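Field: sequence (string)
Field: structure_tokens (string)

Example rows 1 and 2, in order.
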Amino acid sequence: MWFSRKNQGGLSKSERLAKENAALYRSERAIAAFERGQLPEYVEARARKQVQHELPWTSNLSVAEWALLARYGLRPLGQVMGATVYHQAEWKMVLGRQNRYAGGWNTGFNGMYVNLYSGSCFLNELEQGMYEARWLALQRLRAEAALLGAHAVVGVKVKLVPGTVESSLEMTAMGTAITLDLPSVDEPLLCTVSAQDFVRLVHAGSIPVGLALGVGIYYQVSQWNDVWQSGSYSNQEMYSYTDAVYQARHRAVQEMRRHAAESGGNGVLAHETGLRVEEVEVEYGEGDIRLNHVVEFFAMGTAISYRKTHLDERPQSVVSLNT
């Protein structure tokens, strides 16, 4: 009589193969769902269990925020997430394509094209990639909240870390889905403000209308003056580097304001920013080695539409007449 030999995990060969095939099938169906712009089946199944109260809800709310939501008739539904692992184009190739499209004189070195006379510039293709990655993460966050029947997602945070493979990044968006005593909506509102601040905004007559975000990616080309300054023995400001940070920030904030205006907002709250700088050593010729920089600035906040006349939330002095 033949027996199936068990491995250290306690599974026979046939059981292990069945488990691997099931995992492969699940992965293929999840990828197909992402390609259709949907969430995987296992995410939808978990959401259905939460709606039917078969699973406890989770959140990143504090005790004070939870109590305040209950006081004003708002109910947390659960913590929701959206994520994407996104391949980012190599900045060298992006810069080379921009130079060729501009019709400038290009010189090749180290496998890349650089226009020596183009100077510093924005990397538009990389900016578009960052927008798309954040949009994918936020849309999946919104879709998961919609499965729970949410009206809004508060405390939205976007985290960016290097991806699991080379030249990739992992974008994760998280927040707490909440529901109000209102008719259901197709697309829940996303906002960076906390649950407590969300209640205060609504009570004050201000309406959050959505997220506003902006990205600026600037390629700074160092000149001989920058090289000389970097090797100086005295303290001094690196003006070219300072300008690169300002350029990237200005671009990001300008785009954030534009997004806020397009969504009907006249202000941005809970404004968060992030700055990343990548140093790039470039050889322009024999003995001409310079340190350039890729500066990325990210800005995100909650666009609101507010009225000049709103409820006064200042505490009132009350003297009891009861004896």
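Row 2 begins here:
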Amino acid sequence: MVSKYEVEFLLQQQWYDPRLRYYNQSSYDFLNAIHHHNDVWLPDTYFIMHGDFKDPLIPVHFALRIFRNGTVNYLMRRHLILSCQGALHIFPFDDPQCSFAMESSKAPSFHSFTI
């Protein structure tokens, strides 16, 4: 039996870009760069074998922080609708397997998740 499950999660990515280092006497440890997200390089992240994406309920579904040393922290909320395999004859006590994969064109490793 194939059933659909909705999954919402936060994906956090962090990297270092020396071009974004800055020095100031501000009491803040990072810049909130949410309004500059089109001007900052962001990694291309792809979701494979996932099903469908659901539109976010809130208009701003990410956070972008740039730290003084050039570290960039990117947090994004994703909402997936997954197609899962289960055993109909013991539903709702089955243990459905919902898999999706995630990769980036800039990262050498491949990450796969089972929910």
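free_text_note (row 2): The first strand starts at residue 2 and ends at 16.
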